[in-house]
Write a structure and sequence with these properties.
By secondary structure, the chain is mainly β. Helices cover 0% and strands 59% of the residues. It has a 15-stranded antiparallel β-sheet with strand order 1-2-3-4-5-6-7-8-9-10-11-12-13-14-15, with no helix packed on it. A hairpin with a 4-residue loop joins strand 11 (222-233) and strand 12 (238-250). It is globular. The relative contact order is 0.10. The model has no long low-confidence stretch (mean pLDDT 93).
Length: 304
C-alpha cells in the first residue's frame, strides 16, 4: 500500500473531566486526511464514553478516487471487562469517481457495534477469542439514491500448544454483507474490497474480487475472509509465523468457499514494549494473470 507518515497531537484533560482531544494528519501514498477526535469519559455513568469526531480526506486507489467530509458521534458502553457495545450516528459528504461513474452523495447512517473480548492481550494474544460485530443502516441521497443495511462480523481465536505459549495456533474469520442497494448505487466506502496487509496477504491491495471490463476493481456486497497462523516464539524478542490467508468478494450479498482465493507466507516478529513489529512475505496460491509473485508487509502488532 506504500509508505506513509502520521503526525498527531493530543491534549488530555482539557475540560477537567479526563477527556482526550486528538488531532491527526495522516499522509500516505493512497490516503491523506485531517482527523479530530474528542473522547469524553464517564458520561451519565462510569465506563460510558462519548466520542465525537470529524474527518476530511482524499483517497486515490486503483478502485476509486474519493474526497469526503465526515462528522460522527458514538456512545461507548463498557458493560464488563469483556463486553463493550457502541451506538453511533454519522453524516458524510462524498465525491467519488469509480468504475461506474463520478457522483456526489450524502450518507446518513446509524450503527450498533458489539465486542466480546476474551483474549489475554490486545496486540499479541496467545489464548482466548474475540468477536466483533457491527450493523449499520444508512440512507444515501444525491446523484444516486438508495438505502442499505451493512452487517460486518469478525471472530478471532487463539490456542497455545504449551504452558509457556511458545507455540500458538491462531485463526480468524470475517464476513460482511450489504442488503437493499445495488452495487452501482452504493458508495465505495460501504462496499467490500479484499487483498492487502489487513485482508489477504499475498494479493495486491483491493485486487481480490470483481472488476469491470478494464480490470478496475468494483468492490462487492458480500465478503468472506479466513486466516490461520502457526506462531513460534523463541527465547528473546524474535518469533516466527507460518500463515495461510483466503478472501472472496462477490457482487451480490453472498459468498461461498468455492470462490475464495488463497495465499500463503512466512513472517518474523520482533517483540517491543508496544507489541510485536511484524514482517510478512506472502505469495498467491494458484496465481492468475496480473498477480505479483510476492508481497511484503511491515506493521505493528499481530495480523489479528
Amino acid at each position: 500500500e506504500g509508505p506513509g507518515l502520521t503526525t498527531s497531537l493530543t491534549r488530555r484533560n482539557a475540560t477537567r473531566r479526563g477527556d482526550t482531544l486528538t488531532g491527526a494528519l495522516p499522509l500516505a501514498t493512497l490516503e491523506r486526511s485531517a482527523d479530530v477526535e474528542w473522547r469524553i469519559p464517564n458520561i451519565t455513568a462510569f465506563d460510558r464514553t462519548l466520542v465525537l469526531s470529524a474527518n476530511a480526506g482524499r483517497e486515490e486507489t486503483d478502485a476509486f478516487d474519493r474526497e469526503s467530509v465526515t462528522v460522527s458521534g458514538a456512545f461507548e458502553v463498557r458493560a464488563s471487562r469483556q463486553l463493550t457495545y457502541t451506538l453511533g450516528v454519522a453524516s458524510e459528504l462524498t465525491r467519488e469517481d469509480d468504475a461506474f461513474e463520478q457522483r456526489d452523495q450524502q450518507i446518513v447512517s446509524t450503527s450498533l457495534g458489539v465486542r466480546l473480548d476474551h483474549a489475554d492481550d490486545p496486540l499479541d494474544a496467545t489464548r482466548g477469542w474475540r468477536l466483533d460485530t457491527r450493523a449499520e443502516p444508512g440512507l444515501v441521497i444525491g446523484d444516486r439514491e438508495t438505502q442499505y443495511v451493512s452487517i460486518n462480523t469478525q471472530l478471532s481465536a487463539y490456542r497455545p500448544f504449551d504452558e509457556r505459549a511458545r507455540f500458538v495456533i491462531a485463526g480468524r474469520a470475517r464476513s460482511g454483507f450489504v442488503y437493499g442497494a445495488a452495487l452501482s448505487d452504493l458508495p465505495v466506502s460501504r462496499r467490500f474490497f479484499a487483498g492487502g496487509g489487513g485482508s489477504a496477504r499475498g494479493f495486491e491491495f483491493q485486487s481480490v474480487g470483481p472488476t469491470d471490463d478494464d480490470g478496475t476493481p468494483t468492490g462487492g456486497r458480500g465478503l468472506l475472509e479466513v486466516s490461520a497462523e502457526l506462531r513460534w516464539r523463541r527465547e528473546g524478542p524474535l518469533g516466527y509465523v507460518l500463515f495461510l490467508d483466503g478472501a472472496s468478494v462477490n457482487e451480490n450479498e453472498g459468498v461461498g468457499f468455492d470462490d475464495v482465493r488463497y495465499s500463503a507466507g512466512i513472517g518474523v516478529r520482533y517483540d517491543t514494549l508496544i507489541g510485536p513489529i511484524r514482517f510478512d512475505v506472502a505469495t498467491p496460491i494458484d496465481p492468475r494473470d496480473g498477480d505479483d509473485p510476492v508481497q511484503l508487509y511491515v506493521s505493528i502488532g499481530q495480523a489479528f
